[in-house]
Amino acid sequence: MTNANETSASLFAWMPFYSELATKLLAFKNNRKTLLSRLQAVFDDHPNLDFPAFDGIPDDIDPFTVFAFVNRGLSRENATLTCAGFKRAFGLASEVPELFPGLPRMDNRNVYFFRSREHRGDDVDKLWHPSMRRRKKRSGPMNYTCGNYCRN
């Protein structure tokens, strides 16, 4: 019989990997072309995995979309392959997760957190700096429809 702590630890074994990946991605907030190149290389190494694209070849990327590339309804095996590619591409030390319970699943048809080129504006920059608007505007009532980052 397994103890509850062991079960919990194995169920959430993806957390150290995701945490380390998040930290590594921050280094690319001002060098997103290089980030896109590394991501493309991950998918080029695995012919069974398609680089999720919309609106043509991506010209920008945000960290939430990078995570959505794994959480996009892939089979467990393909999600693990994608994480293994991320480990190589970003020099991660954490073990590659093989189970992903508790992670929200993205619709495989739309994994990007920003709009198409002609409607995007500064969406991608905002996703790299989620508290930017909060720092700029400190007065006024909270607009709860967009969380703690927006103010009227």
Shape annotation: globular
- Number of beta strands: 0
| Biggest pleated-sheet summary | none
What would you report as the Rg, rounded to the nearest angstrom? 17 Å
Give the class from helix and strand content and strand pairing.
mainly alpha
Portion in helices = 40-55%
Strand content: under 5%
What is the number of helices?
8
What is the first-to-last residue Cα distance?
54 Å
Mean model confidence by pLDDT: 76
| Poorly predicted sequence stretches spanning 5 or more consecutive residues | 132-152
How does this structure look, described?
The chain is mainly α. The protein has eight helices and no strands. The chain has helices at 4-11, 14-26, 32-44, 63-68, 76-90, 117-120, 123-128, 132-136. Helix 3 (32-44) packs across helix 5 (76-90). The protein starts with a helix and ends in a 16-residue tail after the last helix. Residues 132-152 have low confidence and may be disordered.
